[in-house]
Amino acid sequence: MFLSPKRRIFARLYVNNMKKYIAITFILAAVLSSCGEYNTVLKMPDPEYKYEAAKSYFAKGQYSRTAALLEELIPTLKGTVNGEESLYMLGMTYYNQEDYVTASHYFNTYYTTYPRGTYTELARFYCGKSLYLDTPEPRLDQSSTYKAIEELQMYLEYFPGSQRQEIAQNMIYDLQDKLVEKEYLSARLYYRLGSYTGNTVYSSTGNNYEAAVITAQNILREYPYTKRREDLSILILRAKYEMAKESVPEKKEDRMRAAVDEYYAFKNEFPESKYLPEVEKIYEDANKFLTNGNNQQTDNQ
Fold this sequence. Notes:
single chain; 301 residues; 12 helices; rod-shaped
């Protein structure tokens, strides 16, 4: 039968729409079937049946359903052959959902409950890794970073020959870098505040430049191999020089000498530093003051 062009267009649209409706029908049927199956599992009184279903959901990546079943089952399964596995699986379920706080809780519960269990090494590792993945950016409070480091260090102590040793150690290094970064930002803030003493804890003995020096030196003592070492060292030199410039006459000469000493220490450690032009300018100004015996403030520009 001959169809006009307009009718052929309507016919094609009709067929395409029918295909969509059929596809949607099949999808809904599958979803309803799946929901019906899950609701049936929830109503089952047999914990072993529910546990096998939870394992099946876990294997399929259906972690919300797995968690719901395991949360219900774990008190019942405690002390049974499936008690260990169910607790570890629950931790991994939350880990795979990126709920790292809850995951670390269950991993901790596992290795505390089963210190020599089948999954103890994995539980300790993933407890530390969960805490590592949950740590905040350096500007925020780093209490959880210290906790993650402690957890990973405990893992390395308990399992020194683990195949995951290098991964755990690298996570510790990353976390230490985060702690260094936070303290570096604090030291830099003190330096930028300069001689303003309205909010510095060092106002009774100096100013924010002194706070910058002390903060940076403490970091270098605690983390001598940090990748921020050069940045911290130049910050110390800058702060010492600025503090010397703003000192009262009776302290200025000693502080200028301290700045010159810091210059030599910096040059010896970083002979090819990107900061060398600035460093040489600081030395030139400080040395000029010491040579001329000039008690007036020198210019850093």
